[in-house]
Amino acid sequence: MSRRTGRWAATAPAVPAVAVTYAGTVALSNCSGSVVRTPASQPNDPALVLSTGHCLETGFPAAGEVVKDRPSTRSFALLNASGSEAATLRASKISYATMTDTDLSLYQLTTTYAQIQSQYGIAALTLNDVLPARGSAIKVVSGYWKRTYTCTVDGFAYRLKEGAWTWKDSVRYTSSCNTIGGTSGSPVIDTASGEVVAVNNTGNENGGRRTDNNPCEVDESGRVTVRRGINYAQQTYTVVPCTGPGNVIDLNRPGCVLPRP
Predict the structure, then answer these.
(1) Could you give the CA distance from residue 140 to residue 150 in angstroms, rounded to a whole number?
(2) Which fold has domain 25-126+242-248?
(3) Which of 70, 204, 213, 252 is deepest in the core (most CB within 10 A)?
(4) Is 222 helix (H, G, I), strand (E, B) or coil?
(5) Residue 29: CB partners within 8 Å, gap ≥ 6?
(6) Confidence of residue 205 (pLDDT cuts 50, 70, 90)
(7) pLDDT at 32
């Protein structure tokens, strides 16, 4: 994971894929990310950038730590469809970040969705509000490397443990999504809907057990499984019920289960 700064569902039916490009993805100084909206976000809302919690400029949040509404001036290179840099976007704050139960960060930008669309012709990616299905076709799109990985959802890890951190219901990729350092924070896009279903965050690099860059899976009975060379993401549907009017992250909203400070 440190090098990467750098529930069961039904099997999905075959659905024609939509075109997935780099449009809306961003490159951070050490990671990847994307400009995202919820289904209820409005054009004049301040835009959000999704990445991982371990990609914060302040370093990894501790186990149990939640960052909320912390000022930030971090910059993001916005990419167009071909992967060329279209603009530099800037944060006003870290709206939310944690590495507890999940591994994600949400930055609020100084620009709105309408401004980004008008000035650069680039639309935000939409966060899906349901769990991805096992067997669904996905692409992991890295703005940092300008590289796309194609695979399917192999399954879900009841608990994924790495170092001091534990993540719930992590998405496990099939082996062709062999993501590398710098791909952390990449949006995981369902190719049937074109929507973001997860954020890429880690993988087991050399067969270690629960060490840095070597997460292990733990099932409901406590059985541990190590899958060398397999990579993972954290589901993002949980962000949607926690996002209120104006793209405000409100952890007290009905249905919000993200960890609280």
Answers:
(1) 7
(2) Thrombin, subunit H (2.40.10)
(3) 204
(4) coil
(5) 57, 74
(6) confident
(7) 98
Would you state the structure tokens that stand for residue 239, as one six-digit string?
Answer: 């962000």
Mean pLDDT of the chain: 93
Kindly state the tokens that stand for 51: 């990445």
Cα–Cα distance between 91 and 6 in angstroms, integer? 20
Token look-up 């050399």 returns: 206
Distance CA 75, CA 33 (A): 12
Q: What is the pLDDT of residues 21-56, one digit of tens each?
A: 999 999 999 999 999 999 999 999 999 999 999 999
By the 8 A CB rule, do 143 and 101 touch? no
DSSP-derived pairing of the beta strands 104-112 and 85-98: antiparallel
Side chain identity, residue 168: K
pLDDT at 250 over 60: yes
CATH, domain range 2-20+128-237: 2.40.10.10
Average pLDDT over residues 82-89: 98
* Per-residue confidence (pLDDT) for residue 2, from 0 to 100: 44
The 10 Å Cβ neighbour count of residue 118 is 11
Q: What percent of the chain has pLDDT over 70?
A: 91
Domain locations along the chain: 2-20+128-237, 25-126+242-248
